[in-house]
Write a sequence for this structure.
């Protein structure tokens, strides 16, 4: 018998769970708990020093609205509010952390959203129902922000 199949050829409960990928909804509010390499990365992408100093100790809040393939993402860091709306797989104008407007396509693979803006790879991943990890990578240097659902 194949693994995960009962004697009649149907998936048993254990096999069904092990072989399925559950896609979770990104919808919700998340508060940053920790971040790694913020100052160095933001300096490398050209964020002004005063904004780096202002933002390094602020616990940003991300709010994500997911409706089918359409997303609205609002990140509030102190008094700065960054909002991007997009549809998976369609080119759209997105605002980068430096304030530039850039055309990009956001793709989804399971619980991971990816996009490239001005050479920076953005990955937003739900690692479990309550943990959101954002990673930005440029020329081998990465910034990682971990947030928890509120």
């Amino acid at each position: 018998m194949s693994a995960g199949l009962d004697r009649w050829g149907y998936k048993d409960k254990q096999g069904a769970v092990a072989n399925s990928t559950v896609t979770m909804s990104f919808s919700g509010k998340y508060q940053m708990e920790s971040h790694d390499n913020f100052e160095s990365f933001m300096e490398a992408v050209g964020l002004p020093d005063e904004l780096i100093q202002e933002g390094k100790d602020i616990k940003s809040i991300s709010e994500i609205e997911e409706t089918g393939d359409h997303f609205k993402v609002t990140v509030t860091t102190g008094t700065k509010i960054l909002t991007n709306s997009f549809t998976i797989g369609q080119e759209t104008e997105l605002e980068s952390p430096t304030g530039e407007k850039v055309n990009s396509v956001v793709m989804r693979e399971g619980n991971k959203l990816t996009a490239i803006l001005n050479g920076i790879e953005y990955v937003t991943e739900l690692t479990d129902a309550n943990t959101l990890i954002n990673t930005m990578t440029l020329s081998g240097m990465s910034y990682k922000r971990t947030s928890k659902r509120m």
